[in-house]
Design brief:
Length: 221
């Protein structure tokens, strides 16, 4: 850790969060413990931030107690925002959630979930490339993934067609628009003119050549 550029550097200013414990089994009488401590401490939940002390094999659940030393990142760098050097020298490799219910779960420290952080490490720039969440059963085995994704919602319905134009003032009677089409083009014209608000009629409804005025009175259903 202290070879090369790291020799002689002061790394004591940087602080790394390693553990958060909450859920005391014995409640405290005070809401805020500014000046007092709870009578007994038995935390039920522990969130552990691992910086390389434990293995990162997804098939092997890590232990609650740290086993190795912290690992150094390949691209350490410094911040000087506060007027002195703050050296960033570590990478959080995983976040572990432990439950402490020995009577219910059979052991004091039970791993229930795990966030694995994978990096593309090099001396120039290290980037986070993957984050995987794993769940564990009470016996330490990984829980089988469950597809809880909801199906995509159906597409919204098309907007309603605009109302037909009105005749004069406040009259509620729609204005009539007519279109006379040939029999061979009936289907195409029916779709087109109906969308335009026309009342489509058939010029050769019975095979006879009706006059235009007579054809207007025979509407297609």
């Amino acid at each position: 850790d202290l070879n090369g550029n790291e020799a002689g550097r002061d790394r004591s200013a940087m602080r790394y969060l390693s553990k958060v414990q909450y859920g005391n089994a014995t409640p405290a009488a005070d809401l805020y413990l500014w000046t007092s401590a709870p009578p007994a401490v038995q935390w039920l939940f522990t969130l552990v931030f691992d910086y390389g002390e434990r293995g990162v094999d997804p098939q092997v659940p890590p232990a609650f107690t740290a086993q190795n030393s912290w690992l150094a990142r390949q691209d350490p760098f410094s911040l000087y925002n506060y007027g002195f050097e703050i050296r960033l020298h570590r990478l959080c490799r995983q976040v572990l959630m432990f439950h402490h219910f020995p009577d219910e779960l059979g052991e004091a420290d039970t791993l229930v979930s795990r966030l694995l952080l994978e990096y593309d490490e090099n001396p120039i720039l290290t980037q986070l490339c993957a984050a995987r969440t794993l769940a564990y059963e009470g016996d330490g085995y990984r829980r089988a993934p469950v597809n809880n994704m909801m199906p995509p919602p159906p597409p919204p319905p098309p907007p309603p067609p605009p109302p037909p134009p009105m005749m004069g003032g406040n009259s509620s009677r729609p204005k009539s628009k007519w279109a006379i089409v040939e029999e061979s083009k009936q289907i195409q014209a029916l779709r087109y003119y109906s969308a335009q608000g026309y009342s489509v009629i058939n010029k050769y409804l019975r095979g006879d050549d009706y006059p235009e005025t007579q054809a207007k009175e025979t509407l297609l259903s």
